[in-house]
Design a protein that fits this description.
By secondary structure, this protein is mainly beta. The chain has one helix at 114-124; strands at residues 18-21, 26-34, 37-44, 58-71, 76-80, 84-87, 94-97, 102-109. The protein has 1 helix and 8 strands; from the N terminus they run E-E-E-E-E-E-E-E-H. Strands 1, 2, 3, 4, 5, 6, 7 and 8 form an 8-stranded antiparallel beta sheet that branches.
């Protein structure tokens, strides 16, 4: 049961970094977890390529640098500082790669599950 998130600030300078190896390069995650919500600042090193195809939904906002979101069927989208992509769970297989390195904010959670989106839209009278 989601009991809500009280107002708070996040000082990312005090959130520890975790290191994850990619197919090439390294990702450094700073993560805050809440009930049904994950917020991350992620830095991908120059030459980074993710080691897996992800089907999870995300909101990904480019804070610094440039990266490419590659879809498994071959389509690619390049995002630069100030750009964002959004996708729900299970609606694409995607992975990130960067030649120069990049810093992004990634938000994901239960609200990106397709059933939740349709339910919320139906409750509000809007179309998803």
């Amino acid at each position: 049961m989601n009991t809500g998130i009280p107002f708070q600030t996040i000082d990312w300078a005090h959130v520890p970094k975790e290191e994850f190896k990619g197919e090439k390069g390294t990702a450094y995650w700073q993560t805050r977890l809440f009930d049904g919500l994950r917020i991350r600042i992620v830095e991908y090193s120059a030459g980074y390529i993710a080691d897996h195809w992800c089907t999870k939904g995300h909101i990904v906002h480019c804070l610094e640098g440039e990266f490419t979101s590659e879809l498994q069927h071959g389509q690619e989208f390049t995002l630069t500082k100030g750009m964002t992509y959004v996708v729900s769970d299970d609606l694409s297989s995607h992975r990130s790669k960067t030649t120069t390195g990049v810093k992004v904010m990634i938000i994901d959670g239960d609200f990106l599950k397709v059933d939740n989106i349709h339910k919320s839209a139906a409750e509000s009278g809007a179309n998803p």
